[in-house]
Amino acid sequence: xxxxxxxxxxxxxxxxxxxxxxxxxxxxxxxxxxxxxxxxxxxxxxxxxxxxxxxxxxxxxxxxxxxxxxxxxxxxxxxxxxxxxxxxxxxxxxxxxxxxxxxxxxxxxxxxxxxxxxxxxxxxxxxxxxxxxxxxxxxxxxxxxxxxxxxxxxxxxxxxxxxxxxxxxxxxxxxxxxxxxxxxxxxxxxxxxxxxxxxxxxxxxxxxxxxxxxxxxxxxxxxxxxxxxxxxxxxxxxxxxxxxxxxxxxxxxxxxxxxxxxxxxxxxxxxxxxxxxxxxxxxxxxxxxxxxxxxxxxxxxxxxxxxxxxxxxxxxxxxxxxxxxxxxxxxxxxxxxxxxxxxxxxxxxxxxxxxxxxxxxxxxxxxxxxxxxxxxxxxx
Length: 380
Prior knowledge:
CATH architecture of the largest domain: Orthogonal Bundle
Helix content: 25-40%
């Protein structure tokens, strides 16, 4: 089994992540001596749906500080009342996994009042795959463990999308209009790595704007996608109102677009951006080497943009991603424009080349593997 970078907190925690991200494998390896409740089993699910407080009776005799894993906790949100009691009165510790936070957030579930922190299981990182990491394959099929470890990446990837509609959307009754949501999904793949204008998507999908907004929220709540907000300087008018939109994994964007072959050169850019975004989020969670991630695009220069602006206190690092081996001065436009932003410490261009260098203006050029190594070594 591949070693994941995620480390368990010392206190109770929610562990969220999309289906197939390896949550169950990780918890079984991490909590080998823990008490395990799997709500994917129909018998277990039915028992706790009928009487969720039976969990208290089952765990009453466990020693204090024992670990208890509840897999797919969103299927029985009422269990969290029992969990709350067991944390407070019996001093037990819980790992509560789920592939959707929607039912918990929308169903007035007991979110334990700060007694449990939150962690996210991401697709495989390059450092986790080691020599097995292949950037070409990652941009085509992604690195979700379920898909990466399959013999036929393409077939499993397509099945993943269909199972998502059946198991996550239909079974959880997240929308009444499943055909409309399916049409939206196909269109959403085209917006991976793009500035998101909900009105444009609504027009393409032929559904109401409010419906599309709700659909995007479903994608985020089921942990398949995330919006990246624009950087807004303090005491200034917002520079950009629309966020950028990324799927958590490049393979999902390709599958939803119906892409079966190699991504085109135009598609590789957003796919690599999305991969870098996922990696940055993972290191933000695990190592806390920076606080926030935004993108930057000043209102006065609409065609100028920097893919990522990461903040650590008052310090900022600008990162531009280009899916090409040979970069040009045009690729540095955004990084040059952001030089005067208060707090900028470093400006970095990530490329598919193999040469590390630094320009006269101080912009650092990093090949993708070097960039990943710097993150792993916490040299940011």
